[in-house]
Amino acid sequence: MCFAGAASLMLFDFLSPPTNNSDLGTLGHYRVISELGRGGMGYVFQALDTKLKRSVALKVMNQKVASSRNSQKMFVREARAMAALHHDNVVTIFEVGKSDDTPFMAMELLKGQTLEQRNRSAQQLNYQQIIDYARQIATGLAFAHEKGIIHRDIKPANIWIEEGTERIKILDFGLALASTPLDQLSGKVAVIGTPGYLSPEQARSEPLDDRCDLYSLGAVLYELCTGALPVLANSIPGQLVSIIAKRAKPITHQNSDIPKELSELIHQLLRKEPRSRPKSAISFCEQLDQVEMACDAKSGIAIAINNLQKGLSDIARKKDAVK
């Protein structure tokens, strides 16, 4: 075995020796080629399914985490939640299983970047792009919600933008729960999610429904429009208090290029009480269609007026030249 292969097996001791010297190792019938990322639950690798001869993203549970029964339950819950969703705007799961007591899931290998990575670029999205992203995310959420699944951790890092197509894929249903038996799963409700994008009801550790995802979507869209989160604090406890009690500054005060209609709809998503938000992701999409038509109509009128003014200016210049 080459030194690189031996080193990878020391680092990833759940892998079997590689069949190819350039690989990290093997896991079941998967050739593990390279590491794509890691998080609290484990690792994500680029791998090759040797049975079906296709490249996949292989999510493998960290051995230390896997020793916890609750963590294994969460991992399996994510896998089952995602495997039940077959939609253009949700990442596809191919297989869920265990290899030598190491839980894993194989999913489609995506090319592109997360919305979080996209946000780091200097280029500001225009309102048409924001509407397009909003519609795709909401469409994926609507499908999940129809299946009784709440994501609970919608944030830029969990939204993938496919290279070439700009298609959105929702990732990481690790905190997802079936909406009906929520209280029965844990016995009590805990604050789970990413603080900057949590809904007020999550911050209050209250039972959740689909509309908590709509608030988080609103926080994502607010950040796309302004470059900042709706509310900010210097600590996690402070952030939770701010989410519950503090209202976001109007988007149009921070970015005058965002149409008023779009700003108002995003602020509806950010309302503190779930009943005051759009009633569902489908309802939000319907409202978004109306907003888009209104924005495009205003944009068309503005362009026509600008062209008219330019034409009149050209005529005036020509008259002056004749004189």
Q: How many domains would you count in the coordinates? A: 2
What best-fitting shape do the alpha-carbon axes yield?
globular
Alpha-carbon Rg, integer? 24 Å
Proper CATH architecture of the largest domain: Orthogonal Bundle
Summarize the helix and strand pattern as letters: HEEEEHHEEEHHEEEEHHHHHHH
Q: What name does CATH use for the topology of the largest domain?
A: Transferase(Phosphotransferase), domain 1
Describe the oligomeric state of these chains in a short phrase: single chain
Q: How many strands?
A: 11
Number of helices: 12
Low-confidence sequence ranges = 179-190
Strand content: 15-25%
Please estimate the helix content: 40-55%
What is the CATH superfamily classification of the largest domain?
A: Transferase(Phosphotransferase) domain 1
Strand ordering within the main sheet:
1-2-3-4-6-5
